[in-house]
Amino acid sequence: GAVVSQHPSWVICKSGTSVKIECRSLDFQATTMFWYRQFPKQSLMLMATSNEGSKATYEQGVEKDKFLINHASLTLSTLTVTSAHPEDSSFYICSAGRQRNTEAFFGQGTRLTVV
Amino acid sequence: KNQVEQSPQSLIILEGKNCTLQCNYTVSPFSNLRWYKQDTGRGPVSLTIMTFSENTKSNGRYTATLDADTKQSSLHITASQLSDSASYICVVSLTAFSGGYNKLIFGAGTRLAVHP
Predict the structure, then answer these.
(1) Please, which residues have CB within 8 angstroms of residue B71's CB and are 6 or more apart in sequence?
(2) Cβ of B44 and A49 within 8 Å?
(3) What are the chain A neighbours of B31 within 8 Å (beta carbons)?
(4) Do A43 and B100 touch (CB under 8 A)?
């Protein structure tokens, strides 16, 4: 299967700082990637759809100015949590697929802890 | 409302035993149904993916079934191993009409613990 890599695996940051998370498709090109957030013992919640070369599409209730998404190339999307607060602490996961209606491959996830 | 419900919420079994996890969905228009395994602190890994016309699919000790009429799916794990301890997530994909990507509807997952 395809490989989607996320970095870092975990990060601890101080409240008020910004954190960038990278999502790479290692062996295929992804015009679209997806960013999810997962709280403990809950399922994945879609935050936004990242489109290469254009603006991301955010789900209702997700602040686009707080969660900045950049999809600069066909293999890389980044999620920046700006001015992070403790309530932003969560598990962030990206996914990508080769084609629209096929398998979605997930990254390993990034555990963000804001202190 | 598009929903995916899984049961049980959690399950404990002894190593070597079999178990079956359930998934009921009310999703339309249906594209496919997927089962993922998610280890703690990791991203989900695909086990099976089934379209409307498929009613069973196996991946090693994992066998998924799909009844599109009753909108039910199950994941059967045979001869469980300690490494099977994880969350199992049922995900239903909606057909996108506009040519965009299918939307995924996630179940809450079943947390399986396999004890020696």
Answers:
(1) B24, B25, B26, B27
(2) no
(3) 101
(4) no
Contact between chains at A100 and B101 (C-beta distance less than 8 A):
yes
Residue B18: which residues within 8 A CB-CB, separation 6 or more?
A: B76, B77, B78, B79, B80
Asked if B37 is an interface residue toward chain A (Cβ–Cβ < 8 A), one would say no
What is the Cα Rg of chain B in Å? 14
Q: Which one of B32, B43, B108 has the shortest CB-CB distance to A93? A: B43
Kindly report the CA angle at B51 between B94 and B66, in degrees rounded to 5? 105
What tens digit of pLDDT does each residue of A28-49 get?
888 889 999 999 888 899 999 9
Q: How far apart are CA A91 and CA B22, in angstroms?
A: 25
Question: Rounded mean pLDDT of B42-66?
Answer: 94
Report the percentage of chain B scoring pLDDT > 90: 81
DSSP letter at A77 equals E
- Extended strands (E) in chain B: 3-7, 10-14, 19-26, 30-38, 45-51, 56-59, 62-67, 72-77, 86-94, 103-106, 110-115
Inter-chain touch A109–B99, beta carbons under 8 Å: no
Instruction: Give me the phi and psi of B83, to 5 degrees please.
Output: -70, -10
Per-residue pLDDT reduced to its tens digit, B27-45: 888 889 999 999 999 999 9
Please give, one letter per residue, the 3-state secondary structure of A35-48: EEEECCCCCCEEEE
Q: Are A103 and B46 in contact (CB under 8 A)?
A: yes
Rounded to a whole number, what is the distance in Å from the CA of B6 to chain A's nearest CA? 11
